[in-house]
Amino acid sequence: MDEKLTIQDIARLAGVSKSSVSRVLNNYPAISQELRERVMRVVREYNFVPNVTARGLAGGKTRLVGVLTPPLTWPAIPEMLRGVAEYIERTSYEMVLYSINFENPTHTDVVDRILSLRMVSGLLAILPCDLTPHLLKHFERGLPMVMINDQEPPEHFPCPWVGVDNRTGGYQATRHLLDLGYRRIAHVMGPKRYYCAQERFEGYCQALREVGLEPDPELLLQGEFDPASGRRCARELFARERTRWPEAIFVANDQMAYGFLEVAEEQGIQIPQDVALVGFDDNLVSSHVRPPLTTVRQPFSQMGAKAIELLLKMVDPDHVLPRARAAEDEGHTEAGARMTPATGPLAAAADGSGHQLRVHETSAPYRLDGAIHIQLDTSLVVRASSVPA
Amino acid sequence: MDEKLTIQDIARLAGVSKSSVSRVLNNYPAISQELRERVMRVVREYNFVPNVTARGLAGGKTRLVGVLTPPLTWPAIPEMLRGVAEYIERTSYEMVLYSINFENPTHTDVVDRILSLRMVSGLLAILPCDLTPHLLKHFERGLPMVMINDQEPPEHFPCPWVGVDNRTGGYQATRHLLDLGYRRIAHVMGPKRYYCAQERFEGYCQALREVGLEPDPELLLQGEFDPASGRRCARELFARERTRWPEAIFVANDQMAYGFLEVAEEQGIQIPQDVALVGFDDNLVSSHVRPPLTTVRQPFSQMGAKAIELLLKMVDPDHVLPRARAAEDEGHTEAGARMTPATGPLAAAADGSGHQLRVHETSAPYRLDGAIHIQLDTSLVVRASSVPA
DNA sequence: TTGTACGCGTTATCAG
DNA sequence: CTGATAACGCGTACAA
């Protein structure tokens, strides 16, 4: 097919100057229709694609964006990246993946090295954990950046940001349990240093107060967002005399909920008959555990897509490709269909218990202290861990 | 810190020519020790990193390698990429991720676009499915490429290749069940068009014959490597009269095994008491399903690492960084237990439940018809789905 | 062993 | 609106 044509060759073939070819290729506004067509004909015929490297050198824009992630084996990461990849595929940009290992103490060096290469024209930082302060320095020094980071309070956070409404999420989970008639509802919090953990807790409190209940300190446990701490909390709770058990538990993330399921099975505790359980996240496996987990769904894939869209808008306001909008409607319904398979929500909808699957919607982006923030909605996914089949 | 120093600036600061700086930076052999030190001092002081883009343009090597993957939500992909990322992090290369959606009918175009950009100096194609023929064209046209692809028979496969010994894997699974005393052992095959499915089946047959048994056609089912087909096969099997049930089942991958677990739970069939179950892959979730799944482990992360190592050796034989080897021995014992056979066998530890975990070893790379092939070993992971706790 | 000069393929800046 | 021409930052023959 193509060997190694340059813009020069195309220019010669089309009988124009290479600057003209360049202009056509970059959608320069003031070009005669005739020239544009003449060039495009040759471009298409030879399947010409300009050399990215040269483009980067000359124009300063690399058409590469970096994506910094925790190990891909973390629960939500692959889904977020799917959203990123699907969006990026429809642009002329490419994604350079930096999957960093937080175990490595030198990870700030890694970040510096990445950025000093000046290869990426922007950075999407996904759950950067303790790297946040370091990254913010680069941001303040001018690197276009977007974060997906639920550890920091959005207020006064200087960097563009995509996240979900954790408060409402916590409310949804708790409200669901209240609607089922439960009153003694425990909450297993995430680490207090994580803002999302605080928000989910606040949502929990708000739902309780709405029905005239006050959060009971005895029913509040402290977890670490991992299965081990879930197991620990479960053992602690189930070691109490039966009368002091809660009727239901809202666990601040699915990982800890898995720990609860394990302990429950060990000890022969029936879920939801003995205790109802609701998690948060809707990880891919949550519909496959036993019993399938009722949980608050975060639209991870959509978060990734929104975040990369925002980033590209920052580095290149008109990066949008022709077929972008059409694909957005279609592709998302397909992605959305994944939300309502026969296994999970369908059963809930079918059992006539009146629980609905509220499909998330995109809130409009808003500015807080000058930085754009996009907050997406969570949605409750009802499965068998809260309502018996 | 650094603003935008060029090699020219460094040269001036060090009082040498820019070619000298370039040579030092590229480990050119014939350089005086003094010059090298003089340059490196300045380089370090200013934290200089050469511009990748310019490097790519001038030298023709981009220091970027492409990694083509199915959606990251596929079971083994994140683990493979973890291996890739951990290796790449220790080199001066970066990974450009192309996560493609096989649903998209135009994916060959996507591939062509990627490659015509001439941005990546090599491509690692992970489980490219029906894209293989198309990719091979690019390979034969000179693009350095490595595949992780278990659908094709290694013989006569022209492209460097990393995979596992599926035959021995199938043997291990079956042998394990035989050792437990089972004789009526069913096998749920993967699609016949996948070479790995055939190999696993052959391993199954070999183990049976070793103890004087002949594979029973009645106990051979055909699946499609997805949970749905697993459920289908399970229903088919368990619908037979009880005397015609197998005592144990070797399912050709974990995904299908999940389907078996679901159906078993639906129908109140006890695993392993009523039927023992062994899968293949050891996906991340397989230790968390109920009961935890006995399975043949593929060293996905190591496969990724080996594959990218091979690819980098092809595009740049001495890409190894100074700290690479040290890191491999030391800091990497944790992650590196997967990489170095040295730490392998010793780690034959119990996973808490007293079941042995045989750690796989790396076979030496060998050539087949001129193309390098690396075949890694699988290992049996015994959990509760085959031996009651 | 080191320095000089040119080229890599594009974009941007000028004239025209 | 279009065409020369100068950067962009680095690698590398070639010369010294």
TrEMBL record, chains A, B:
Residues 5-59 form the HTH lacI-type domain. Coiled coil: none annotated. Residues 326-335 have a biased composition (Basic and acidic residues). Gene3D superfamilies: 3.40.50.2300, lambda repressor-like DNA-binding domains (1.10.260.40). InterPro entries: HTH_LacI, LacI/GalR-like_sensor, Lambda_DNA-bd_dom_sf, Peripla_BP_I. Residues 326-355 are annotated as: Disordered. Keywords: DNA-binding, Transcription, Transcription regulation. One of its GO terms (molecular function) is DNA-binding transcription factor activity. The keyword DNA-binding applies. Pfam families: LacI, Peripla_BP_3. The keyword Aminoacyl-tRNA synthetase does not apply. This is HTH lacI-type domain-containing protein. It comes from Thermogemmatispora tikiterensis.
